[in-house]
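Researcher: I'd like a candidate sequence for this fold, 181 residues long. If you have to choose between options at a position, lean toward the conservative one.
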């Protein structure tokens, strides 16, 4: 946002921008709750995956961490994710670099090797697919947004699902990608 306006992000400015972004979103949360919605099947998938041994769920988002948490909290999904091991827009300007931030945070939690074989990004845009591939993650694409399954497959996703509504299909896809050699 700042670079689009020719403004260099200094540490002093960062100290002012992030609180302003948090305040701005706080004012929008009531509208978000009315206009937004959780994707059908998302909650069930998160709950089911939380029961899978060795699965640790977080987020990769262009939002700063507090705003990423607030957006998910608006729909009661925040308790299902570990925000300590996420990747956030405030970590890097390049989306694929966020994967590495999340991997390093997860590895810091003393889990086994955190790399492409153990990292799975679930997303619904070609940009998500590219971020996962370039960042060193396997990619499960879900055609829940404006991009269809064919577009997501063409972008290079390891596996594509039409939606999140079939919880067992989501869990099976995650298992398949986790165990793929």
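Model: Candidate sequence:
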């Amino acid at each position: 946002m700042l670079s689009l306006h020719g403004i260099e992000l200094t540490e002093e400015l960062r100290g002012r921008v992030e609180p302003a972004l948090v305040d701005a979103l706080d004012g929008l949360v009531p509208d978000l709750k009315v206009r937004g919605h959780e994707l059908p099947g998302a909650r069930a998938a998160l709950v089911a995956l939380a029961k899978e041994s060795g699965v640790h769920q977080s987020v990769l988002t262009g939002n700063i961490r507090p705003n990423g948490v607030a957006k998910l909290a608006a729909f009661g999904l925040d308790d299902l994710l570990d925000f300590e091991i996420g990747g956030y827009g405030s970590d890097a300007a390049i989306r694929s670099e966020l994967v590495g931030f999340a991997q390093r945070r997860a590895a810091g939690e003393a889990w086994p090797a955190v790399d492409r074989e153990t990292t799975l990004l679930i997303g619904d845009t070609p940009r998500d697919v590219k971020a996962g591939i370039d960042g060193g993650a396997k990619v499960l694409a879900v055609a829940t947004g404006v991009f269809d399954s064919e577009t997501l497959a063409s972008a290079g996703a390891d596996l594509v699902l039409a939606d999140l509504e079939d919880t067992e299909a989501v869990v099976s896809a995650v298992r398949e990608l986790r165990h793929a050699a």
